[in-house]
Recover the amino acids of this structure.
């Protein structure tokens, strides 16, 4: 199992966090297509905020006009006159209560509509973000996936998006409305009394400094937390994928211990992040109480001593209004502090997502790349050098020509560069020197889509999807009819076992084709390639994991689909090599011998030694006399396109 010490791919993310405003700005750009929903939500938020700012003023009016009449200007309900009789006071208070009730209802409606419209916009943004992220993942080169764990990548698409979802919508509206409310209240307080407002809001700078200090550390901690949850996913994905190996080697205890360590690291990272966010709420709450005490003490002294502040008289109603202003000012501060955990986690998740989206594919179409015309299949390697790491060459000076329709077998020890050669043809990787051409076109000068659509690949490790047999074969040509799919299956002699499945071609396979033998999975993969009708075939040890009987079936199918096609074969079995037009023997990234099977045997060199140690016993088992048997007669073509390759 992979331990924590080996997971270093994303560690550098947590050390250099970007400014949160940069991340938030990138989020804002995703809302541009839904600007009308954002504006509509903002209008509802403004309406709700106006109500919240207006209600403290009406409370102060009730005090100064009806409870302790001192300010005629506050009595707008009675036309600017102070009521004299109790009946007038009761009527005025009743009118104010009715107005307040209407405002409370309006505020609830505005808030609900604001949350709804913003949630609609947020869900559309999340959908677009997921689609963009998934589409970007499909464009990344194979080298990226060779260096990054699948669990880490999946964590960005799932967990990181989920943290953003928790903030967008409800959280976003709460933050926007809270910020707007604080600014609006501050303006109203300053308009009422500059001195009293500045004294009442004197704790705001302390709130800002506290928030800045704790939020900066919380964001770093949450970046670490997001990375650690990615490690948990990677560990889980690896354990589930390798559960057979875990049980076969009796390593359940070690697997559990490894996951426990990874999970503990995730726990510690989350506790560290929570320690900062949990300290923020109580600190801001205490500062809010200090601000309210300042309002009461300063305002009460001004009223009792009848002392104006910078020329502005302070009434008891003003004190009540400012006390409510202070409370309403502190409410969004407290609300934002409660949401701060999600906000910081979302910012950290956003940074990870945008970092992935900023990762450029290693292999891209050239700016002037043109679609390649239907190819004949002449492949030329001209002094090719290639490697997967800088300054480390896997191939050195590879030169050969495969004429259209020829079969080229590539043999050699592990690490000789066989797979690297075939990876260069569909341009899964690029050469570091020289060039690869098909029909005279450098593969880097044509579009990858047009190139790969004419190349069929069958690998040793066959991948089948959790879908029906029919759709797994149809993956080679999504436009193929059911009859064409079944014809491809018959061509490779896979129809026999398919028809014995519970639901035939409509049988839904398990993950990676669970429930089928290796040979059956391989036959489906070959049927998929046959349906694709490629001009170039690449067979990477396609028969190394099947029994002799199944290999014969596969070889007969190969004889059909290889006809007229350029074929590259990496094989460990003689049956796929002995009839090749050219056999290349590789060692340490160089071609040390080339020629036909019989020619290389006559040379008694490296290929002869390989044959004597590995292939001769196979040939004796197949023929029973040590000589190659003639290939069995293959079944006739079921569709012209599959038999002729489109010629």
């Amino acid at each position: 199992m992979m331990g924590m010490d080996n997971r270093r791919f994303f560690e550098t993310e947590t050390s250099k966090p970007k400014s949160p405003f940069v991340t938030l700005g990138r989020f804002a750009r995703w809302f541009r297509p839904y600007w009308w929903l954002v504006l509509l939500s903002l209008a509802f938020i403004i309406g709700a905020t106006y109500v919240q700012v207006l209600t403290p003023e009406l409370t102060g009016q009730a005090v100064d006009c009806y409870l302790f009449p001192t300010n005629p200007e506050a009595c707008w309900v009675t036309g600017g006159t102070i009521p004299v009789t109790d009946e007038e006071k009761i009527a005025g208070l009743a009118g104010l209560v009715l107005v307040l009730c209407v405002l409370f209802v309006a505020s609830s409606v505005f808030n609900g509509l604001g949350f709804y419209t913003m949630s609609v916009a947020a869900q559309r943004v999340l959908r677009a973000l997921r689609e963009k992220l998934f589409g970007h993942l499909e464009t990344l080169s194979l080298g990226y996936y060779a260096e990054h764990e699948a669990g880490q990548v999946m964590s960005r698409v799932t967990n990181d998006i989920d943290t953003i979802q928790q903030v967008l919508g409800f959280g976003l509206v709460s933050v926007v409305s809270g910020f707007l409310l604080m600014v609006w209240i501050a303006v109203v307080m300053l308009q009422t009394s500059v001195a009293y407002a500045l004294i009442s809001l004197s704790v705001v700078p302390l709130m800002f400094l506290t928030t800045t200090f704790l939020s900066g550390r919380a964001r770093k901690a949450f970046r670490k937390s997001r990375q650690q949850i990615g490690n948990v996913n990677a560990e889980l994905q690896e354990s589930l994928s390798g559960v057979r190996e875990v049980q076969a080697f009796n390593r359940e205890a070690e697997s559990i211990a490894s996951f426990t360590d990874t999970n503990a690291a995730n726990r510690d990272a989350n506790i560290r992040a929570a320690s900062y966010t949990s300290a923020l709420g109580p600190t801001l709450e205490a500062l809010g109480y200090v601000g309210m005490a300042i309002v009461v003490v300063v305002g009460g002294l001004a009223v009792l001593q009848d002392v104006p502040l910078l020329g502005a008289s302070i009434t008891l109603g003003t004190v009540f209004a400012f006390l409510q202003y202070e409370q309403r000012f502190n409410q969004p501060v407290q609300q934002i502090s409660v949401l701060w955990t999600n906000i910081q986690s979302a910012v950290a998740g956003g940074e990870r997502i945008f970092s992935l989206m900023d990762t450029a594919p290693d292999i891209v179409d050239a700016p002037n790349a043109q679609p390649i015309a239907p190819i004949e299949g002449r492949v030329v390697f001209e002094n090719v050098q290639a490697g997967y790491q800088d300054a480390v060459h896997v191939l050195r000076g590879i030169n050969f020509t495969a004429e259209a329709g020829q079969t080229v077998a590539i043999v050699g020890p592990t690490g000789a560069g066989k797979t690297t050669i075939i990876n260069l043809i569909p341009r899964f990787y690029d050469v570091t020197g020289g060039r690869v051409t098909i029909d005279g076109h450098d593969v880097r000068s044509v579009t990858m889509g047009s190139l790969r659509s004419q190349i069929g690949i069958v690998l040793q490790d066959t991948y089948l999807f959790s879908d029906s047999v029919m759709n797994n074969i149809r993956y080679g040509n999504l436009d193929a009819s059911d009859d064409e799919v079944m014809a491809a299956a018959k061509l490779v002699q896979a129809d026999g076992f398919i028809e014995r499945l519970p639901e035939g071609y409509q049988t839904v396979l398990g993950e990676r084709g669970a429930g089928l033998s290796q040979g059956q999975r391989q036959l489906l993969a070959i049927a998929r390639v046959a349906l694709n009708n490629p001009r170039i075939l690449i067979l990477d040890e396609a028969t190394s994991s099947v029994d002799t009987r199944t290999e014969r079936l596969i070889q007969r199918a190969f004889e059909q689909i290889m006809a007229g096609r350029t074929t590259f074969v990496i094989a460990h079995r003689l049956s796929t090599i002995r009839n090749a037009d050219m056999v290349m023997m590789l060692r340490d990234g160089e071609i040390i011998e080339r020629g036909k099977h019989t020619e290389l045997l006559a040379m008694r060199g490296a290929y002869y030694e390989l044959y004597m140690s590995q292939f001769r016993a196979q040939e004796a088992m197949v023929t029973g006399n040590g000589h190659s048997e003639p290939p069995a007669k293959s079944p006739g073509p079921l569709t012209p396109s599959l038999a002729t390759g489109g010629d």
Notes: Residues 102 and 530 are 72 Å apart (CA to CA). The domain at 379-461+535-644 is CATH 3.40.50.300 (Rossmann fold). DSSP finds 21 helices and ten strands in the chain. The radius of gyration is 37 Å.
